[in-house]
Amino acid sequence: MTMFLSLSGTLTSSVNSLVSLIPSAISLTISAGRLMDIVKMPQEDYSQDTLVQSFEKQHKAEGIGLNMQNLSYTYHNGTSVFADASIEAYPHEIAALAGPSGEGKTTMLRLILSLLTPQEGSFHVCAGADHEQIIPMSPSTRKLFSYVPQGNTMFSGTIAENMRNVKPDATDEEIIEALQLACAWDFVEKLPEGIESTVKERGGGFSEGQAQRLSIAHALLRKSPILLLDEATSAPDVAAERKVLRNIMQDTYPRTCIVTTHRPTVLNICTRVYAIRDKKCKVLEEVEILEMMKEF
Ligand SMILES: Nc1ncnc2c1ncn2[C@@H]1O[C@H](COP(=O)(O)OP(=O)(O)O)[C@@H](O)[C@H]1O
Ligand SMILES: [Mg+2]
Predict the structure, then answer these.
(1) Which tens digit of pLDDT belongs to each residue from 165-199?
(2) Percent of the chain scoring above 70 in pLDDT
(3) Which of 6, 85, 109, 261 falls between 20 and 30 A from 36, CA-CA?
(4) Strands 198-199, 157-158: parallel, antiparallel or unpaired by DSSP?
(5) Which has the closest alpha carbon to 269: 238, 296, 295?
(6) What is the 261 CA–ligand 1 centroid distance (Å)?
(7) Residue to mutate (ligand 1; options 73, 107, 113; most atoms within 8 A of CB)
(8) How far is the C-alpha of 58 from the C-alpha of 56, rounded, in Å?
């Protein structure tokens, strides 16, 4: 009996350890599957790289805008997000995409970045006095953009290290200037270690609004011709939100800026406001903007 018990004990523990391997095996196959998905992704077409580079060099001083006309886009699962929608934005302007969640603001930014390709429509980046110099958008034109996605983009490391990710040769002064523009210098300055303070993954150690402002500073430091902010000023601090956009607007660098927001609090600072509804981007008149702000 004793022998039976001890042997069956051994057997159960072996079976138990075998069973405990199952979750690891499942997560292993899932990870392998995801890796394969990445490996199998089609190679993007970067054949326009040299053209975009010379275009950027030629027009950097005056700025580069974008113009997208009559776009239609349907996700592969059949969700139709845009039908015959048009937007444009030019240097020294802030164009706002406003609308409730799920209307397609983030999708529009993905289209602008050529992460998605519209099924119909014409889409160009443009420069020149009448915006007449154009090149079609493609994965190559993505280099002209800085993008601050929803949430924040900070990695673990010091603030300065995070900043130098996008511009390795940035001086401390340049970093401080970007932090000032993004209204982040106020709180960074007060930290005992200043720009050498550590940030944890995803902005840990800072409030949501502070981490967002650090992400914006990060994007401003690169001085790309076009800046895309996806709900990047949506943290509760309305005053800071307005100030960041004002600073961007008053900056002498000829930047084109597109912001998305589900809150109308900043719309009256923007040059042009598009309401995204019914799969279209409708330009709002000043009265409509004021009405929207009052309703909020
Ligand atoms: N990857 C995707 N595949 C299929 N449908 C999507 C995908 N991403 C977003 N959608 C759908 O597209 C619509 C617009 O989404 P989104 O652009 O994220 O809206 P917003 O940023 O305005 O909140 C939503 O109905 C959403 O469900
Ligand atoms: Mg969104």
Answers:
(1) 888 998 999 999 999 999 889 888 999 988 888 88
(2) 98
(3) 109
(4) antiparallel
(5) 238
(6) 15
(7) 107
(8) 5
Q: Report CA(34)–ligand 1 centroid distance (Å).
A: 21
**Predicted TM-score of the model (pTM):** 0.83
Amino acid letter, residue 66: L
What span, in angstroms and rounded, lies between the C-alpha atoms of 267 and 260? 10
Q: Which residue has the higher pLDDT, 66 or 129?
A: 66
Answer for the pair 172, 203: CB distance below 8 angstroms, yes or no: no
Q: Which atom of ligand 1 is nearest to the CA of 101?
A: 23
**Quick check: 134 pLDDT over 80?**
yes
**For residue 234, how far is its CA from the centre of ligand 1 (angstroms)?**
18
C-alpha to C-alpha distance for 263 and 214, rounded to whole angstroms: 21
Grade residue 53 by pLDDT with cuts at 50, 70 and 90: very high
Q: Do residues 146 and 222 lie in contact, with contact meaning Cβ atoms separated by under 8 Å? A: yes
Distance between CA atoms of residues 197 and 156, nearest Å: 11
